[in-house]
Write a structure and sequence with these properties.
Helix content is 71%, strand content 0%. By secondary structure, the chain is mostly helical. It has one domain. The longest helix has 34 residues.
């Protein structure tokens, strides 16, 4: 079993996924402000969601690898320690953004999304906060009213629920882990189809279940998990998948289809499989070991969580300033959005998140090292 403590390229890949989301939200923010936007918004929506799906595949890969490496080294893995590491990594920034989105950003016109007054955001605030506390951002608008600046946190809710169930499932199905991952990938689609009629009946129990399930994406994370399992077992199939020619073909398919029509040619579940192959090769193919290993990319990947959390508020700030200053809002805002978002994420990581991240060491097994996500 391999004993690596860090996978090459994955930090850089995380940053690239964050950039896809930034572009998606920037074009949508332009539309909200009544500014000209590039292409079709539906296409940008798909590209942004694919960026999040790539995050999910990477997360499934790394989380599963770390749990199973701990199990191999210690005889078992500690669910409590795993949850504490996740709490210290995710919760501080998540809840900071929730509080900012509810009680600060709506009162700063340059920072919040237009069309929602501060009074509207504050309506039913205990119910909204309660839903965020149990990591159900996808239910907030429907059950309690909008909190526009925090709606992108739905993916954090997905991750948190995955963290809750995944270590338990791996333990319960210890002897059948490959079958578990395949069953989740297939079963997700079955449950989706069973719940889908609820889409046409807003407010019903089935509608809420469908709204939750469509955002859960455990099938995508199971793809990453399956790739981690293949890597750990070092079987023949791994040698077939770690083929640079296969990697290049898959990369070409992904880039071309995302550029042409990310929804029509390849569905989300097919994309998750393609992303799984890319992640596996980026992480374990020795011929690709230096592809995304630029120190700047590595650092940007390490702060990509902050980039994701803060980018919408920064995007609105830059776009509205450009409007006030009568600058072009076509492509010119992008470098400023990216630079300012990175600066805020850097400051957040250094002066806020790092205080919590330092405490993770007491809950980390010796083998985890810098592969921790």
């Amino acid at each position: 079993m391999p004993a690596t403590t860090r996978f090459p390229n994955l930090d850089g890949l995380r940053f690239m996924a964050a950039c896809l989301v930034i572009v998606h939200h920037a074009e949508n923010c332009k539309a909200l402000l009544g500014l000209p936007h590039s292409g079709r918004l539906e296409q940008w929506d798909q590209i942004g969601h694919l960026g999040v799906l790539l995050f999910f595949v990477i997360s499934g890969f790394l989380i599963t690898y770390l749990l199973l490496r701990e199990e191999a080294g210690q005889g078992r893995y500690s669910i409590l320690n795993f949850q504490m590491r996740r709490i210290l990594r995710i919760w501080p920034l998540y809840f900071l953004m929730v509080l900012l989105s509810m009680f600060v950003l709506p009162f700063v016109p340059l920072l919040h999304l237009p069309g929602t007054e501060a009074a509207t955001v504050l309506e039913n605030w205990p119910a909204k906060l309660g839903l965020f506390i149990v990591f159900l951002p996808s239910w907030v608008t429907a059950m309690a009213g909008p909190v526009p600046d925090a709606m992108h946190l739905w993916s954090i809710g997905t991750e948190e629920h995955f963290y809750l169930v995944w270590p338990v499932l791996l333990l319960l199905f210890k002897r059948y882990r490959p079958a578990l991952m395949i069953a989740i990938f297939i079963g997700y689609a079955v449950i989706y189809r069973l719940l889908a009629p609820g889409f046409e009946a807003p407010g019903t129990v089935q509608w809420y279940l469908f709204k939750y399930w469509v955002n859960f994406n455990i099938d995508t994370m199971a793809v990453g998990a399956f790739m981690a399992l293949l890597y750990l077992r070092q079987g023949r199939m791994l040698g077939v998948l770690l083929d640079t020619r296969l990697f290049l073909v898959v990369l070409l398919i992904v880039v071309v289809t995302m550029a042409i029509d990310p929804k029509g040619l390849v569905g989300y579940r097919a994309y998750s499989l393609l992303f799984g192959l890319l992640v596996l090769n980026f992480a374990a193919n020795p011929r690709l070991a230096r592809l995304l290993e630029n120190p700047a990319l590595r650092y940007l990947g390490r702060i990509s969580y902050g980039i994701y959390v803060y980018h919408i508020a920064i995007t609105m700030l830059v776009l509205q300033l450009f409007v006030d200053w009568r600058f072009s809002t076509d492509l010119l805002p992008y470098p400023f959005i990216l630079l300012l978002t990175v600066l805020v994420a850097w400051a957040s990581h250094r002066y806020f998140e790092s205080w919590f991240l330092r405490m993770r060491g007491r809950y980390r097994p010796p083998l985890a090292g810098s592969a921790a996500t």
